[in-house]
Amino acid sequence: MRKVSSVLLVLVLISFMSAVGFAADRPLIAFSQVAMNHPWRIAMTNDIVYWAEKLGVDLIWNEGEADAAIQLTKVRDLLLQEPDALIMSPFQATALDPVKEMCDEAGIPLVTIDRSIDSEPGTGMYISFIGKDNTRIARELGEFVANYLYELNGEYKGNIVEIQEAVGSSATIERYNGFREAIAEYPDINIIATQSGHGYRVEGTKVMENYLERFPAGTIDIVYTHSDEMGLGALQAIKAAGRTELIGRLVTMDGQRAAIETVVNGEHLGVADYAPHFGEAAIKTILAYLAGDEVEPVQMLDFNLYHMTTPEGENFTRNYYNRMLAEDLFY
Description:
By secondary structure, this protein is α/β, with parallel strands linked by helices. It is built from 11 helices and 12 strands. It has 2 domains: 2-130 and 277-301, Response regulator (Rossmann fold), CATH 3.40.50.2300; 135-274, Response regulator (Rossmann fold, 3-Layer(aba) Sandwich). The longest helix has 23 residues, at 2-24. The radius of gyration is 24 Å and the shape is elongated.
């Protein structure tokens, strides 16, 4: 009887140690965020936290205060904690490129989200870039604008002012280039001014105020902003200046509820979706890699264009906006 009891005790101890070991083996993932001073960035971080909990991984994270040097220093701090992998949304592509070498030296897999760095994904420990195709989205938005101007004027003709995202980020470069690729074949559609609003609503307002002073009524046909926040800021400036001819002439990217509401009520012409939901894809990619599976070096997530210019577009946009209201979705 004593022998049986001893065997049972050993089995219990083995089971307990296995359970403890399993808990201790939860992957530790580090996340470096650009900053936490923007609704889009806050929503992205919340999404990462949600999927870390849902997929059973431990998470440590910090933010770079919208400064490349600070973000680089804080990435070093994260790597000193020896995580199993690092997720980074870099402030600038070139300035944060040294992170790839740091991860190579530490043997820590790196996944970038939203924005890329200069190094090629799939080389060394830089296992994947996960984003949305900014170039393609901006190109489709540019084509949408060109077609709208044709319907408006009977020809492909019009003047556009642009408010860019943060200077030097891969997203800014791609949104800048993609839009121009679309309108390049229409010589009478011109971007007459471009300036950075750094992604913020207040800066979007300031840049738009400057444009309204420089360009009198009738000389601007479309306002193209690289983000919802700047688009909403530009709309505020237009309303304050009484430039009603520009109501319904704004196009932007991101897809927050406040911006889609302005599409529904006719104040924005269109919004291209770039919602900050990267957590599921990023963490599942890391878990697959840690399990020994091959992962795609470049992963592009789907997007939508919200507008009211066709019956199909109106129906799709209204339905999505109503869903956002019903489920209290910010993005």
